[in-house]
Amino acid sequence: MSRTQSPVVPFFSNPLLHRFLQVADNRRLFTNVILTRNEADRLELERRFAEHYFEMRFLGFVRKHIHYEALHLLNKSRAKAKQEPLLLNMPLSSEEAGGHERIELLEDPHMSVEMQVVEESEELLNLTGNPALHEAIQGLTHKQQTVLYLLYVKQRTEAEISAELGVSQQAINKLKQSSLGLLRKKMSRSPTERSVGR
Amino acid sequence: MREETLRSLILRAKSGDSEALQTVIERFRPLIKKYTRQADLKDAHDLEQELILRLIVLVRSYREELPYGFMELVEQEWAKNSRLSN
């Protein structure tokens, strides 16, 4: 490229000129034009400068617009991801899931009334981590279990339960006392006795 | 033969040369990648398409301007410098 390094290295603070004259060929042409006033070289220099000017201006134009467009789109998709994360559409981790998404594992929340009743009656049993207590609760009648469930899991008052079940408050209280008494009795029995008693 | 200048490429692309347009897109792909790397994997492809589309619009809408010739600019700069040194 650079055949004859020109002795004159003109300096221009104008960045457009500065960059243009960094190219050795352009510098050589420029020196020729200044020293010899060669018309052909001047035309070539002008042509090259037009190219250079076009290039710099176009690059600036594209960089600026692509930059703003990209930032705009990136912000938009980030805001969207924050607002409505596609958690349910995340693929399941393991490969054997076969490209299924998490949403496919969700159950229908509208289960039948029967299912709800079963779920609720089981809840009291499932709540205890103590196997002895679990067994003791299983020994209660359905009625006793229901009252304990409503009292201690649902945190209802005796008055509320009596209204709900259509029995007197005294009856509820009696059921509560007898159920707790039974549980206490079963829990205080020694393990051997309990297993014999079954 | 020397490499085709950006100017002639853009001018050809502007006049509807799809091969030239393709070359322009390839030349600007590194710039576009700079941004798509910042996106989530699932959005990166969409973003790339959007930016390429934007680039095409920019190429089509670009108007060449040459406010001054080389020697004109040189003389302007020299005049500025002599004014400063006086």
Task: Present the secondary structure layout.
The complex is a heterodimer of chains A (198) and B (86).
Chain A: H1 15-20, H2 24-36, H3 39-83, H4 113-127, H5 131-138, H6 142-153, H7 158-165, H8 169-188, H9 191-197
Helix pairs in contact in A: 2-3, 4-6, 5-8, 6-8, 7-8
Chain B: H1 6-14, H2 18-36, H3 41-61, H4 70-85
Helix pairs in contact in B: 1-2, 2-3
Counted up, domains of chain B total: 1
Number of helices of chain A: 9
Please give the CATH class of chain B: Mainly Alpha
Biggest interface, which chains?
A-B, 33 and 29 residues
**Number of structural units classed as domains of chain A:** 2
Mean pLDDT of chain A: 77
Could you walk me through the main structural features you see in this protein, from its secondary elements to its overall organization?
- Chain A: One of its GO terms (biological process) is DNA-templated transcription initiation.
- Chain A: GO terms for molecular function: DNA-binding transcription factor activity.
- Chain A: This is RNA polymerase sigma factor (Sigma-70 family).
- With 198 residues, chain A is mostly helical.
- Chain A has 9 helices and no strands.
- In chain A, helix 2 runs antiparallel to helix 3, helix 6 packs across helix 8 and helix 7 packs across helix 8.
- Chain B starts with 5 loop residues before the first helix and ends with a helix.
- Chains A and B meet through helix 1 and helix 3 of A and helix 1, helix 2, helix 3 and helix 4 of B.
Which features does this protein show?
heterodimer; A: 198 residues; mainly alpha; Arc Repressor Mutant, subunit A; 9 helices; disordered N terminus; disordered C terminus; B: 86 residues; Rna Polymerase Sigma Factor, Chain: A; 4 helices
